[in-house]
Every structure is written in C-alpha cells, then in structure tokens.
Design brief:
2 domains, globular, Immunoglobulin-like, binds zinc ion, five-stranded mixed beta sheet, 29% helix, alpha/beta, TIM Barrel
Length: 318
Amino acid sequence: MKIFLLSLLTVTTIWADAHIFVYHRFGDSRHPSTNTSIEELRKEFDYFKQNGYEVVPLSKLVETIKKKESVPDNWVVLTIDDNYKSFYQNGLSVFKEYGYPFSLFVYVGAVDKKYSDFTTWEELKEIGKYGSLEFHSYGHEHMTQISDEQIRQDFEKGLNLFEKNLGIKPKYFSYPYGEFNERVKEISKNYGFEAIVNQNTGAIAHFSDPYDLDRCALVGETNLQKYLKYKALDAQWIEPKEYPKDDILLHVKVKFNNPTKHGGVYLSGHGYRDVAVINNELNVKMDKKLTQERSRIMVSSGNKISTKLLIKDTYGTH
Ligand SMILES: [Zn+2]
C-alpha cells in the first residue's frame, strides 16, 4: 500500500503548492555550507524554466495568501538572506540574465560597520533595481537569547538606518538564523511588516500564515526536486507550541483540517515514525528528551508537511 502511494505521488506530483527558497552566498567556495555555486544556480534556474515553474516576486505570493486566494502550484519565490558581497559580485548577474525577481534580506549592521564580506549601501541601491530589499535585523543576534528590550532596540536601530540609507521601508522580515519562538514572533509583528519568513522546510498554500512563511534552504548539495514535491499541510499545532521547559517533549498533538487517517512524525535527533490519525487528530506520546536547543518536529500526511521549530528561550538563563 505504501509503495503504491509513493509511486502514485511521483507520477502525479509534478507541481505541488508554491515554494519559497532561500540562498545565502554565491560562487564562494570558502563557505561550502552556505554557498551555491554558479553552476548549481544555473542548473536550478534551468530546471524552473524547463519544467513550467513561474518565478514570482514575494509580494505577489503574499498578496495572494492575504486574499485567501488559491496559490498556483507552479509558483516559486526566490529570497537571499545576508547581503554578502558574493551575491553582488557573482549571483546578481545570473538573476538578471534569467529575469528572475528576488527579495534580498539585509543584515543592516554589517553594512553600517562596513564588513568587507558584505555589500555597501551603494551596492544595495544597485541591487534594488532588480529585486526588493527587505529586513534581516541590525545585529544578526540569536533573538531567542536576548531580552524583549534588546530585540526592540535592534529593530529600531536597523529600521532607521535602512530607511535613511535606502529611502524605502522594508515590507518583509526574515529572522536571523531562522530562529524564533512565540515571544520573538509577537515582538517582530509590531514593526508593520506585511509578512515574516522563517527557514523551515515547507510549502505555501492559501491557508499559510503570512507571519510564518516556510522557506527551503538551497545551499551546498541541493534537494531542489525533493523540496518542490512538498505540499503545505493544513493543520493546527496544539502541542507543543514552545520548547518544553524541562527539555522533555511529552506529546505531539496536531489537528488536521482535512480528512486524514495516516500520518508521520519526524523529530530531529530521534527520527521518523508512522502514526495513525484518529478523528483527524494526530496525538502521539513522545516522552523524548530534546538533545538540541534548536529542535525540529515535522508532521506529515503523504507529501504534505507542517514544521514546528522549537528553540530554547535562553534569555535569563545564561
Ligand atoms: Zn542571516
């Protein structure tokens, strides 16, 4: 039965919901874990072109979700975190050549302090002619590890400098390191962003939360075709909502909004297991000690997934 389902998926699922991808460095072999070679970038762009994908601006996807309109299966959105010099020097010309829009999330402190590995304000203005410039914090802190007041100061300093130097207000925010929890998310939402993107593997559909949009990372050896097969799972997380206080994850409880009988749970450090879904509710006793302060739970039904990132809030404990 399982083999039958899997083969059915590979045959029928050419397109599956929209996907947002995130890149970091381009053609910079000094940092293989965050780099995309120019050869790989062209391969991915050719794949989009040859297989009917449409690369759309992030704004088009966000507007569609906000209107709760259905999201075309062939939409792809390209984003870049950290305005590394290598995007300006190596990546930008490829985006221009293919005519693909993008959103670049700016680490403002690196520009302000003139770090040599990052773009200048002038280079950002040039980049802004071809894509949108967005916000990625001032100090690139692990936001779950600093106080509410420190998070607010970071936003205020960074947004002021962004607007002063670029003459525009950013519409979107991406969390430094993709790290957030409910506390960080609630503070971030106060700064007038139209959407916030994370760095959890997933896909985007009309029911996706604009303030919690999943992005698949395209770095190093890429899983592009695997990512493109994922669909968004329409589900509500009941438990856990946060990193458990004593590091013990007792249950995973998720309500599926569509009729479902079988599901799966993946927990980083502990692996995957199949589970029965009863009355459209997945309710699994885990009783697992989390071994990483950054743990990931993925709940699935076929190729539909929903990811919850659990980050230990260490502010006040260090
Ligand atoms: Zn970053």
